[in-house]
Amino acid sequence: MDEHTLLVTIAVFVAVAAVALLIQAGFLFGIYRTAKTVEEHATRVIPKVEGLVTNSEAAVEEGRKQLSEISAKAHGILDVAHKQMETVDSFLTDAAGRARNQMERAELFLDDTMNRAQQTVSMVHSSVITPVKQINSLATGVRAALHYLVRRNQPSPDRATVDEEMFI
Predict the structure, then answer these.
(1) Pairwise CA distance, residues 67 & 72, whole Å
(2) Chain mean pLDDT for the chain
(3) CA-CA distance, 65 to 163, in Å (whole number)?
(4) pLDDT at 87 over 90
(5) Is pLDDT larger for residue 24 or for residue 159?
(6) Under 8 Å CB-to-CB from 9, ≥6 apart: which residues?
(7) Burial 89-124, CB ≥16 within 10 A → b, else e
(8) By CB neighbour count within 10 A (0-12 exposed, 13-18 middle, 19+ buried), where does 42 fall?
(9) Which listed site, 104, 129, 146, 152, has its alpha carbon 20 to 30 Å from 120?
(10) Does residue 27 carry a pLDDT above 60?
């Protein structure tokens, strides 16, 4: 290659490199402008975000306080409920014991009443019914004796028939 062609070629490459540098400079200028626009928007938004962060921190702190209060109240309620359950349990245990005692007393009373009723029935049977049966038996015997004595002299037709049939 001759010198002239070499110079033209180098000049073309230098021109291409210069155009490439100009394009890069344009891109860098565009990035700079975009960064400035983002910075301006961020500058406007930062106070709002800081206020939001401050409010959020305050809300979180208040929520923690309320949560601790609720937790303390819940523990208090659970303690009271536990004491109430113990009271109810002791009351039910006492009531069950008393009911058991009353049932035992009622059973003893019922057994005693049944024994007394049985003794009364035995006493009535031995002191009233047995003598009445004896008197009734005695009266039946006296009646039979009187009946025999009154009818002794007069044979009954049935008896005479029976006596005659025995000999036939």
Answers:
(1) 8
(2) 88
(3) 127
(4) yes
(5) 24
(6) 1
(7) eeeeeeeeeeeeeeeeeeeeeeeeeeeeeeeeeeee
(8) exposed
(9) 104
(10) yes
